[in-house]
Write a structure and sequence with these properties.
Bound molecules: 4'-deoxy-4'-aminopyridoxal-5'-phosphate
Distance between the termini: 30 Å
Largest sheet: 7 strands, mixed
Number of strands: 14
CATH superfamily of the largest domain: Type I PLP-dependent aspartate aminotransferase-like (Major domain)
Keywords: Amino-acid biosynthesis, Aminotransferase, Cytoplasm, Pyridoxal phosphate, Serine biosynthesis, Transferase
Helix content: 25-40%
Pfam families: Aminotran_5 (PF00266)
CATH class of the largest domain: Alpha Beta
Number of domains: 2
Order of helices and strands: EHHEHEHEEEEEEEHHHEEHEEH
Cofactor: pyridoxal 5'-phosphate
Shape: globular
Protein name: Phosphoserine aminotransferase
CATH architecture of the largest domain: 3-Layer(aba) Sandwich
Main location: cytoplasm
Length: about 350
């Protein structure tokens, strides 16, 4: 088998132990004589997987009783329009904090639904930073305030979250969910596509506070109401059963690693290796993010010239590093160091960055 270091931005690395477990259960899931993909979503075997995944996420993230965990489809991209469809009503404002391309995309969708405003933006600073809390512009008729917790493309991340009381705080946590402990109570709604820290693509996780489930949503099609999925324990229709099975295995793995605190500690260690290689390079590697806004999940940097970026990436590819290209919209280099990326991969990248620079 080819030995690679997977730094893909998403879909991305899965824990090897999870893949091995899935492989061992592929042909016969728990004595059923078939794979989990072939089971009815109404069978007790599947329902057990489904419920276990919900329970584990609640346990690992310390989710309070008044929040529901939902399994949806359509990716984080559908969430960009799904929550405005229910909450951005006539006379209210969808208020957005812009920290990168994904926040812009979320705003673009909301504009098609209702009135929007920008509470703060770091666009003028080329999305190298997260806006200061003191700069936020709120409105008394805010339907919600939306933020993107980790900016996958620019490589910035919120170090802490504001306590917002006048409206629900909605967060797209697609690229850092479960990478560190959070205070779920600060949020009305959290959503994330699974394909970075939670499992394969196909399932989108939403964590919704009860009061947001009791709004009148008669104008919203059934499948696009959080209520529909909350009332049926995300079994209103056929859920993406294999993705949820994998999610359950990934959550089990996170628990085996010592939970979210332990994962965060490892993520810090991993990211530090690469940030140190940048900081100790006398400016050869230039990080995109300002230091206090650096992401532990996506480390973005450039070499002194486009030609050197190309050489660096080409040689990296030969050595088995996968996915180090920056997003097509910004170029440069990006190492995505999600939960399942092993420390050894980061050590290897650190060594490669040092030897390439010396050469
Ligand atoms: N938000 C963020 C922060 C992302 O990184 C991504 C995907 N890279 C998306 C949203 C879009 O997610 P999806 O492909 O699941 O729609």
């Amino acid at each position: 088998m080819k030995n690679v270091y997977n730094f893909n931005a998403g879909p991305s690395a899965l824990p090897k132990a999870v893949l091995e477990r899935a492989q061992s259960q592929l042909l016969d899931f728990k004595g059923t004589g078939m794979s989990v993909m072939e089971l009815s979503h109404r069978s007790k075997e599947y329902e057990e997987v489904h419920q276990n995944a919900i329970n584990l996420l609640k346990e690992l993230y310390d989710i309070p009783e008044n929040y529901q965990v939902l399994f949806l489809q359509g990716g984080a991209s559908l969430q960009f329009s799904m929550f405005p469809m229910q909450y951005l009503k006539e006379g209210l404002v969808g208020n957005y904090i812009l920290t990168g391309s994904w926040s812009e995309k979320a705003l673009k969708e909301a504009k098609m639904i209702g009135e929007t405003k920008i509470a703060a933006s770091s666009k003028d600073n080329h999305y190298k930073s997260i806006p200061q809390f003191s700069d936020f512009q709120f409105n008394e008729n805010d339907a919600y305030v939306h933020l993107t917790s980790n900016n996958t493309i620019y490589g910035t991340q919120w170090a802490e979250y504001p306590q917002i009381t006048h409206a629900p705080l909605v967060a797209d946590m697609s690229s850092d969910i479960l990478s560190r402990p959070i205070d779920v109570q600060k949020f009305g709604l959290i959503y994330a596509g699974a394909q970075k820290n939670l499992g394969p693509s196909g399932v989108t996780v939403a964590i919704v506070r009860d009061d947001l489930l009791s709004e009148n949503v008669d104008h919203v099609p059934t499948m696009l109401r959080y209520q529909t999925h909350a009332e049926t324990n995300s079994l209103y229709h056929t859920p993406p059963t294999f993705s949820i099975y994998m999610l359950n295995e990934v959550l089990t793995w996170v628990k085996e690693q010592g939970g979210v605190e332990a994962i965060e500690k490892r993520n810090m260690e991993k990211a530090k290796l690469i940030y140190d290689a940048i900081d100790e390079s006398n400016g050869f590697y230039q990080g995109h993010a300002e230091k206090e806004a650096r992401s532990l999940m996506n480390i973005t940097f450039n070499l002194p010239s486009e030609e050197q970026n190309k050489q660096f990436l080409a040689k990296a590819k030969e050595l088995g590093f996968v996915g180090l290209n920056g997003h097509r919209s910004v170029g440069g280099c990006r190492a995505s160091t999600y939960n399942a990326v092993p420390l050894e991969a980061c050590l290897a990248l650190r060594d490669y960055m040092n030897s390439f620079r010396t050469e």
